[in-house]
Structures are given as C-alpha cells and as structure tokens.
Amino acid sequence: MRADTSVRTSPLAAWTDRLADLAPALTAAERPFLTQLTVRASDPVAVARMGEALGVAFPADPCTATRGGGPFGAVEVLWLGPDEYLVVAEPDRRVPVEDALRAALRPARGAVVDTSAQRTTIALSGPHARDVLAHGCAIDLHPSAAPAGTCVQTLVARAGAVLRVDDAESGAFTLLVRSSFAEYLAAWLSDACVEYRAALS
Amino acid sequence: MQLIPCPWCGPREEAEFHYGGQAHVAYPEDPRALTDQEWARFVFFRDNPCGPFAERWSHSAGCRRWFNAVRDTRTYELLSVYRVGEPMPEVSERDEVVS
C-alpha cells in the first residue's frame, strides 16, 4: 500500500470540532480551499469587462463587496484597495476564472494572481457573533453602520483580517484570515466566546 | 484611541496605521550634483514645527495605501487628510496652547 501524500489539509483542519463546540452562541466553521485571486487594475473599462466575464460587477465603493452567480458558479468580489480586488470562487475553479480575468483585463495594465493558499475563510453566525467580534474588532458592525455587503480589511484581535458582512440583521459574517494566523484567531474566538456559552447553557 | 480618517476607508483606529515621516520632500532633481552635506540634509533633516505639519501615513492594516495628513504637533489632532498627488489643503491653525 502506498501512502497518500496528496491530501490537502486546511489551516483549521485540527479545529473543526472545537469550532463546532462554540454553537449555539457562535456558529463558526471553516470554508477551506476557496479559490482566491487578487486582481490589480485601475482602468475602469477593464474592471467593468472583468465583472462581465464573471457575471458579477466589481464593487464600485470602498469597503464593499459584491456577489452573484455566473459562468463560474457563485463568485464574490471584495474591495481591498483603490485598484485592488479579491475574487473568491468555489474550490478548484482557479484555472478557468484566472484565464477569464486575464482575457478580460487585456489590453489594460494590471495583474491577476492566484492567492488561494494565502487566506482561509471562517463563516461566523449566531446570536452572539457580533458580541464576540466586538471584543477584538473596532469596526461598528451594527446593521445601521455595516449593512450586508460591507467588507473591510481591519484588525481582529490584532490579526489582520478581511471581514465581510453577509447578513446584517441576523449577524452573519465571513472572516478571511492569513493561513498562518488562522489557528491563533480560532483560539481567540473560542476564548472570547466563553462567557456567552455559559449564558446559553 | 484616536481615529484617523483614511481617505479611502474612513475613520479607523490609530493602531491600523503607520507613520511615514514628513510629506512633500522632493527627491533631488540632479542627484549626482549633490555634495555629501546636501545628501545628508536630504536624507536626515526634516522640519520640526510647533503646529500643523504635513506627514505621510500608511493605512497598513486596511487598504495599505499611502496618504498625506496635516497634524498639529502640539495637540496630535489631525487637521486634514488628502491623497498622494493632491495639493496640501489650507488648514486653519488653531491657536490653543496645550500645556
């Protein structure tokens, strides 16, 4: 028998059970291996063309994200900077999405880079998701200040993260965190959650 | 903690930013013509005013872009922020003296 060394291991593979234990106060689950492409382009025509290729218009305003479906399935585009976007798609869609973006970008100057391994994704929801995040994140996540579609790069418990608001009313968030910080953030989440777990049980 | 208004992301905590020294320090037009003294002045010497001071800041934990800010060195109050390439806006200097 041959040892299989090609099994992918996500940064939070060892944390699946411990994150699941945080429910019901906080529902936290890793969404591993998402396709992530960093796009740099400042030409608005090329940016619009890339949006058409994906079937999702790129976000026009700072600190927002767009999502939708197109030829590559569900795709999200996050604003990271004035000429920088993060395209997030389902796992293993890198090659077709990257090709389509490159074709749409030409002849404008820019870059499409595969950064799928750079960050992992944690989906957060639950009655205390906002309270737990407030312990380590200075962004006002009340629905009146951060409606669905808000997407900020900020510090969560001193770790750099991209925080997207999926559902402002029920408090569903997505955290994209560097793979090397993922275990730290998972440990911080389970620690920050202690008081709410006690209150609910 | 002071909030710094990033020109792109809006007000964020000071901990997300990094300081980049004095703004509007132009690189020498003819670098080869400079003497050692002139190079030393360009590299090491910066203004140190008591009052409004144009500085560079980087929103390093956010959009990671550089921008300029006018800060009152007496009060640490940021009087204005503006993007790189934009002219320095007129700021009204406040005469309050902080002990």
Question: What are the key terms here?
Answer:
heterodimer; A: 201 residues; alpha+beta; Gyrase A, domain 2; five-stranded antiparallel beta sheet; globular; B: mainly beta; Folate-binding fold; four-stranded antiparallel beta sheet; 9% helix
Lay out the secondary structure.
The complex is a heterodimer of chains A (201) and B (99).
Chain A: H1 16-20, E1 27-30, E2 35-41, H2 44-54, E3 65-70, E4 73-81, E5 84-89, H3 94-105, E6 110-114, E7 119-125, H4 129-134, E8 151-156, E9 159-167, E10 172-178, H5 179-192, H6 194-200
Antiparallel strand pairs in A: 1-7, 2-5, 2-6, 3-4, 4-5, 7-10, 8-9, 9-10
Helix pairs in contact in A: 2-3
Chain B: E1 3-6, E2 10-13, E3 18-22, H1 36-44, E4 52-58, E5 66-72, E6 78-83
Antiparallel strand pairs in B: 1-2, 3-4, 4-5, 5-6
Protein name (chain A): Sarcosine oxidase subunit gamma
InterPro entries (chain A): SoxG, TrmE/GcvT-like
Organism (chain A): Nocardiopsis aegyptia
Protein architecture, described:
Chain A: Keywords: Oxidoreductase. Chain A: It comes from Nocardiopsis aegyptia. Chain A: This is Sarcosine oxidase subunit gamma. The complex is a heterodimer of chains A (201) and B (99). Chain A is of the alpha+beta class and 201 residues long. Chain A has six helices and ten strands; from the N terminus they run αββαβββαββαβββαα. Chain A has helices at 16-20, 44-54, 94-105, 129-134, 179-192, 194-200, and strands at 27-30, 35-41, 65-70, 73-81, 84-89, 110-114, 119-125, 151-156, 159-167, 172-178. In chain A, the strands form two sheets. In chain A, strands 1-7-10-9-8 form a five-stranded antiparallel beta sheet. A five-stranded antiparallel beta sheet of chain A has the order 3-4-5-2-6, with helices on one face. In chain A, strand 3 (65-70) and strand 4 (73-81) form a beta hairpin. The longest helix of chain A has 14 residues, at 179-192. In chain A, 37% of the residues are buried. Chain B is mainly beta and 99 residues long. Chain B has a domain at 14-26 and 47-86: Folate-binding fold (2-Layer Sandwich). In chain B, the strands form two sheets. A four-stranded antiparallel beta sheet of chain B has the order 3-4-5-6, with no helix packed on it. Chain B has a two-stranded antiparallel ribbon with strand order 1-2. The mean pLDDT of chain B is 91. Chain A binds chain B through residues 62-63, 80-82, 84, 138, 152-155, 160, and chain B through 1, 8-10, 12-13, 15-16, 61-65.
